[in-house]
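hi! just following up on the protien thing from before. the input was this:
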Amino acid sequence: MPIRSLTSQTDLFRQAAHEASDALSKWLGRPSRIVINNVAIMPLNEAVGVLGVTDAPLVACAMGITGQYSGLLVLTGDDASGLALADMLLGREIGTSTKWTEIEQSAAVETANIIGCAYLNAMAVDPQATPELAAQPLMPSPPAFLRDYAAAVMQSLLMGQASLAENVFLTHTDFQVDAMPGKCSLLFIPEAEDLG
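and the predicted 3d structure came back as:
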């Protein structure tokens, strides 16, 4: 994806966040709000710290994207937020889930899939895309679940970038769901070779 001005990119990502917020609200049956935190081109070493430094592990559900845009779309959050999302989806009282069993992981992955597909559907109607790009469908891979410390999660996600570019284009979106403790993040990381 050739990177245009950050302003035009931010407008596109803001629309994508709005669509993802609507999808998440319908999916969980609760009010949710997804907002753009930051859209920036930054050095890789700064990008590694974008989720903060914490002694607690983070969970991430990452899906690869190919087509009109290529890269990664990642849903991430701390254990409390992620497990609360799983409880909401499973119709449980928040706090019921205390560890990441197969069913909680499956709920997190499916939530990432719902949010990610809504986000990508909005991006697919980019009015500034060339006819050639617009004709290419956006194809997400099934989300993969991982759990580690923030820096390790980001290093894993950015590994492919490190050998190709010194900078990374990163869209960092925060979301909050009614009654969910803390917040989760949605990251869009285009392929390094697409950076202009």
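The chain has one domain: 6-194.
The radius of gyration is 16 Å.
cheers
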